[in-house]
Amino acid sequence: MRSTEAKQMELVCPAGTPAALRAAAEAGADAIYCGLANETNARNFPGLNFSPEELADGVAFAHRKGSKVLVAINTFARAGDVDLWREAVDTAAQSGADAVIAADLAVLDHAASNHPDLRLHLSVQAAANTPEAIRFYADTFGVKRVVLPRVLSVPEIAALNKEINVETEVFVFGGLCVMTEGRCSLSSYATGKSPNLTGVCSPPEHVDYTEDADGRLLARLGGFTIDSFEAGQAAGYPTLCKGQFTAEGKTGYLFEDPVSLNAFELLGELSKAGVTALKIEGRQRGKAYIAGVVGAFRKAVDSLSDGGDPGPAIGALKAFSEGGRQTAGSYKKTWR
Amino acid sequence: MQTHPSSESLPPLVSSLVAPLPKPPMEALLSTLTRRLVARRPDLIRRLGDVVRVPIAIVPDDLPHAFLLSLDPDNSRVRICDKSRIGDARAIVRAPFLALLGLLDGTYDGDALFFSRDLRIEGRTEHVLALRNTLEEADLTPGEFFGLSGQSADWVNTISDKLLGQVRAFAQKSAHADCSRQKLS
Ligand code: SF4
């Protein structure tokens, strides 16, 4: 059972490019997560991610700045073609990275068997949110930390932490994936590609935007019109979970509005709930986002111990949010 | 830190001043500087992937012309054309000029500009994404774009920062004045 005594929580920040990694390290990230430029990570977007050489250089740079590097190899290996995932783990180990974030049993097994000193974090893609599931990963592969799906409330996280012996990491800012991650097929349904297998939700080659004469923006995914935004109305990502659907004669957002997570106001409670690390989503985002969000959350985490006021810095983050709006998501579960 | 760039449109006078300038020397200069940048940073071409040689139109809302950019290991080109003549572009990115510059130098985040509707995308979204991510990695300061290094690069970057800051403040002021005039009328 983990102690729930409040310790400074670790700030885990995204990097989609070496430039973003440098920005995150400069802005005060305790750890930076990134992935290789292939299907082995769940942000497999054009122009994003690291070559093996860039990863090694990035690790060296981050270490000089006092930040750790965690390599996301968090998609599910394709049957009959597992070598790409094995090689990714080997590359991460050779780069001197501090941990690998994985979800697939074969990937975890390869890492545990061949790189026993490499720390393993369980990706949110594994969707492990019960003590039994988490204990299985810890006992079988020596997993040291689990990234929790964005579907648990703070009391549920506190209860979970009392029953497990591994660290927990929770998302505090950025895009909301509203399903228990690893179990969403919406993107596969519309495009044939999924975050879990090919590393992309709403692959950009299936996304299309058009603006009509009145300035109304139509967002399409795989040929389906999934949302429309009036002229001047803030837009969101082209994800199906945040699209509008018509059911029983009513049209509206069925799963979630276009909105981003901001759990800043819950940091104290998350710390008391025994959370070890706070994750910022956004490996697809630019340096301006990384510097702004990481800097603000650095102040916020430090303010728990030094009493500083992170309010203005956190307030300025609204412009980075989908639809210009923010939510505390499931952590508060006000709809129950 | 991200501010709201929609209030940073250049006043129409700038567009009128730029319109009669001859295009060929500007095209030649921009193409040469882009080719030199690509030669110095072959990693950028690797990062671009399938977008190499794909023409993408960059269309500043508040300038009279569009820029047609095609990145290539040996023959990168920037063409300046009328906004009505960007037919062969595979993707089009539209935004106020200062917002586009802010994307280049990392002042603005592309997704945030998209959410606020300052940036609009047409055509092949994956090409725009690849270009955007490549430019992010390019860490393009004015000094870097002009191929400078060391002190001279620092000098050019400081001057451009100051100049851009002033242009942004001026654009915001004139947008604010416009807004007040509209309220009064
Ligand atoms: S469609 Fe939504 S819930 Fe499903 S994987 Fe994508 S972001 Fe997550």
UniProtKB/TrEMBL annotation, chain A:
GO terms for molecular function: 4 iron, 4 sulfur cluster binding; metal ion binding. Keywords: 4Fe-4S, Iron, Iron-sulfur, Metal-binding, Ubiquinone biosynthesis. Pathway: Cofactor biosynthesis; ubiquinone biosynthesis. It comes from the Bacteria. It holds the Pfam family Peptidase_U32. Transmembrane segments: none annotated. One of its GO terms (biological process) is ubiquinone biosynthetic process. The keyword Iron applies. Its cofactor is [4Fe-4S] cluster. Forms a heterodimer with UbiV. Belongs to the peptidase U32 family. UbiU subfamily. Required for O(2)-independent ubiquinone (coenzyme Q) biosynthesis. Together with UbiV, is essential for the C6-hydroxylation reaction in the oxygen-independent ubiquinone biosynthesis pathway. This is Ubiquinone biosynthesis protein UbiU. It comes from Roseibium aggregatum (strain ATCC 25650 / DSM 13394 / JCM 20685 / NBRC 16684 / NCIMB 2208 / IAM 12614 / B1) (Stappia aggregata). The lineage of its organism: Bacteria, Pseudomonadati, Pseudomonadota, Alphaproteobacteria, Hyphomicrobiales.
